[in-house]
Amino acid sequence: MIEKTVAELSAALAAGDISSQELTQAYLDRIAQFNDELNAYITVCADSALAQAKAADAARADGNSSALLGIPMAHKDIFCTDGVLTTCASKILNNFVAPYNATVVERFNAAGAVMLGKTNMDEFAMGSSNETSHYGPVKNPWDTERVPGGSSGGSAAAVAADLCAMATGTDTGGSIRQPASFCGITGFKPTYGRISRWGMIAFASSLDQAGPLCKSAEDAALMMNAMAGLDEKDSTSIDMEVPDFTATLGDSLQGLRIGVPRQHFAEGLSADVEEAIQASLKEYEKLGATLVDIDLPNNHLSVSAYYVVAPAEASANLSRFDGVRYGYRCENPVDLEDMYKRSRSEGFGDEVKRRIMVGTYALSAGFYDAYYRKAQKIRRLIKNDFNNAFKEVDVIAGPTSPHTAFKLGAKSDPVAMYLEDIYTIAVNLAGLPGMSIPTGIVNGLPVGMHLVGQDFAEAKLLNVAHQFQLATDWHRRKAPLTSKEA
Amino acid sequence: MALSKAEVEQIAHLARLQLSDADIDDVTNRVSDILKLIDQMQSVDTDDVEPLAHPHDAVQRLRADEVTETNNRDALQELAPESQDGLYLVPKVIE
Questions:
Q1: Residue B2 has pLDDT above 90, yes or no
Q2: Is residue B12 a part of any domain in this protein?
Q3: pLDDT in tens, A124-149
Q4: CA nearest B89 in A: which residue?
Q5: In 3D, which of A58, A54, A61, A4 has the Cα closest to residue A27?
Q6: Would you call A356 and B82 a contact, using CB atoms and an 8 Å cutoff?
């Protein structure tokens, strides 16, 4: 049962085939069996999960039939959870028990979902391999010598290994889509502003966006129905009508125009990943879509502009961690400055400190025009590229990552790690919705296809992914860790 | 561009970070490498390009200036390393 999609579990719960308490216990057993090896969870909330499941079963008996009622899920440890440790995978927050729920968490609670625990991640979401976590790296369920991707690596591994039915993640430069690709699951980054950021620990505020990690596009639509919409508590959340994201999943793709950016099939893309993506594009042609060659001429500048915008915003956001109001404080500070400096230096990991340094430099007196403002101008060029492309096409498709999951420790050079996100970063700079869906297996490792839509056209994107998943079964393939069990 | 050690020390001070002597060479090299990556964007002429500060060119929504939060001081201060009588305690700043 635990390998099923949310849509299937929802039907099973509604039919009375299983109770939420039984289902929740099955996931907790699975976590007990595999979490030591995978390190996907930082915190497991067994008691409160079973209590929530009991309440969900009672609500169902009272006639509540919400789609997510009683579905066991995990939250990335970047979302504040009332009364539950919320670390952002950092030593500086290793004693932080959040005093309130993030809006995203509130919405899943209101829908009756069960929280199994909080998932591991790159520290402050800064990384593409989940190796920067203070709590140790997450292992990829397909090959435990490999990374799950990052930064939402714990959520991706937990979904792939059936340690939960669905999970939340956040995506600042690819942090939902790349781990979804590496772990063979479906990951969805909505349009910037579509989901509230309130209570989601900030990394880069003009880029951060929460989204689903799950087993199908249909599940992503069900999660989006719970997550999306205006939140008065987040001044960047957008006041725009939220559709029922499941309503258009069944639409035909006849006449769909898919843009294929030539820059995403150039040097650097591994041959076997390219082959898998090309095969999937052919599948789309069979479904009635037309492929259109498109140009994103400024794509190559996205990584450099991102590594100004994201660190600059991070350096400002992370200035709140000062050892005064919450989190880690160093031992025996001699004065205030010593307390700030040692609390931060002992509390933050190396990658976080590097990004704070880069951002501080970019924002320091005299450099604003050369760095932050310049990066914002590049951001405009990148957005213009997408706007031009969308005059001719409905969605854009390509690889999510240049290759499949790499080995733990293989990329020790930060710049090499940054280039991992070469296909995903531009989407964050432009604020567009994007997703990764499983589209092949190469040498035993999953390949992800990247789909990008127009602003607020999430329903179209989910429709395009769902139709592919009706025609193929890549999203049904399980990591060997799972089949060992079966 | 490559940074000097003195520049790196100054940036660390601005960011209220302390670098050990053992770390400083590595940090200088790594941060310089990142700045080299960033400098790729200087190759493009953007004189006539309007900066994009927000992905949808939106401005922030304003709300009425009303008190909407309840007072959670005690609960919030339980999270502090040190607090007393509703105040946050830090090392002495005035002799």
A1: no
A2: yes
A3: 999 999 999 999 999 999 999 999 99
A4: A324
A5: A4
A6: no
Which residues on A lie below 8 Å from B58 (Cβ)? 193, 236, 238
Which domains are present in chain A? 6-251+461-485 (3.90.1300.10)
Mutate to test the interface with A, among B46, B52, B71 (most CBs of A within 10 A): B52
- Domains: count for chain B: 1
- B22 within domain boundaries: yes
In a domain, B80, yes or no: no
The complex's ipTM?
0.96
Residues of B in contact with A314 (CB under 8 A): none
Q: Which residues of B66-79 are buried (b: 16+ CB within 10 A; e: fewer)?
A: eeeeeeeeeeebee
CA distances from B45 to A305, A375, A377, B23, B42 (A): 14, 12, 10, 37, 7
pLDDT of residue A102: 98
Q: What is the pTM of this model?
A: 0.97
> Between A and B, how many residue pairs show a Cβ–Cβ distance under 8 A?
164
Question: Which residues of A are catalytically annotated?
Answer: 76, 151, 175
Place of tokens 């009375």: A16
Is position B24 within any domain? yes
Instruction: Give the strand pairing for A257-261 and A395-399.
Output: parallel
CA A157: distance to chain centroid?
Answer: 11
Task: Tell me the nearest-neighbour CA distance from A451 into chain B, angstroms.
Answer: 18
pLDDT tens digits along A4-44: 999 999 999 999 999 999 999 999 999 999 999 999 999 99
What's the CATH code of the domain at B19? Answer: 1.10.20
**Residue in A353, A356, A385, A454 to test binding to B, most B beta-carbons within 10 Å:** A353
What domain range is B12 assigned to?
Answer: 5-42
B31–A335 CB contact, under 8 Å: no
Contact flag B17-A356 (C-beta cutoff 8 Å): yes
